């Protein structure tokens, strides 16, 4: 069965986003934070394919910033950054818009510049897209 299509509404969520966090002594301590990216902020969504009146998210769409790790100013354990981009690492291979795979609910994400792996937590339940 298909999955609900992702569009420019909802969120992407990753946990843990391990960030080096300053302590009062000045030492950096790795602490897990949630990382949340808003689909409404996506760049590169389809300009002409809509679902429920909103543009669908495409495999090469990108959300430039995220939230959740504001205290982790020492940066991610892998990326060295905090609250940065979310990209999509899975999508439909059989259903495309503008020649690109459509992202669906529960497709995988790479968040905070690949510091945390997450999922798309939104979709339009009346529009299902297959693998």
Comma- or semicolon-separated keywords:
mainly beta, about 130 residues, single chain, Tumour Suppressor Smad4
Word description of this protein:
This protein has no helices and twelve strands. With 131 residues, it is mainly β. It has a single domain, classed as Tumour Suppressor Smad4 (Sandwich), CATH 2.60.200.60. The strands form four sheets. It has a six-stranded antiparallel β-sheet with strand order 3-2-11-10-7-6, with no helix packed on it. The chain has a two-stranded antiparallel ribbon with strand order 1-12. It has a two-stranded antiparallel ribbon with strand order 4-5. The chain is elongated and about 50 Å long. 41% of the residues are buried. The model has no long low-confidence stretch (mean pLDDT 95).
């Amino acid at each position: 069965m298909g999955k609900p299509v992702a569009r420019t509404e909802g969120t992407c969520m990753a946990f843990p986003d391990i960030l080096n966090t300053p302590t009062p002594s000045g030492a950096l301590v790795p602490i897990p934070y949630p990382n949340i990216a808003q689909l409404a902020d996506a760049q590169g969504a389809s300009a002409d394919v809509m679902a429920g009146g909103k543009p669908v998210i495409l495999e090469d769409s990108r959300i430039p910033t995220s939230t959740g790790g504001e205290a982790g100013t020492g940066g991610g354990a892998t990326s060295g950054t905090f609250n940065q981009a979310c990209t999509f690492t899975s999508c439909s291979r059989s259903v495309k818009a503008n020649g690109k795979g459509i992202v669906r609910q529960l497709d995988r994400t790479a968040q905070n510049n690949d510091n945390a792996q997450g999922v798309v937590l939104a979709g339009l339940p009346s529009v299902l897209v297959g693998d």
